[in-house]
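Entry 14. Structure prediction run on the chain below.
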Amino acid sequence: MDLGITRTEDGLNAHSWNVVGHTYVPKLWSEDTFVWHATLPEGTFVPPHIHPTQDEWIYMLDGELEVEFGDDKHTARTGDTIKMPRGIAHGIFNRSGKTATCVFGVAPSRKLYDLFIALDGVTDPAELVRISALHEVDFLPPPDAG
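Output returned:
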C-alpha cells in the first residue's frame, strides 16, 4: 500500500468504474486489502455470487440495502456493517427508493481490483459472469422461473 491520502474526490490511479450500474471508486489497495467507495442507485443490484477466496464487508454511509444470503434477507441502514464471509453466496439489492452510498472492502485483495477494471461498462450479463469467473467471483445461476 502506498503512503498518503486518497482525497474524497479521487480514486486510486484516477479510476472510477461503472459496474452493474454502480459507481465504484477505489480508495485503498494492497495485496491484503482492497477498499472502494460505492454509489448504488435505486433499483440496482449485484446478483447472488460467491467470493471463494475473500471475505467482503460493506459499511453503510447513507441509505439502505438489502442483502440476501440464500433465503435469508437482511436490511442494512446508515451506520450498519454487512459481513459476507468467503464461500457464502450473497446478493446485494437497492430496493429502498433512493440512492445508497457505502464503503466496500475485501481481504485479501486477490483479483478484485483487476476485475473492476475489466468490468467497467460491461452490460452483457453473460460476459459479466464469464469475466468474473476468471477473477475468482462466481455468480450463481438465476432461480427457476417456474
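The radius of gyration is 15 Å.
Filed with the rest of this week's runs.
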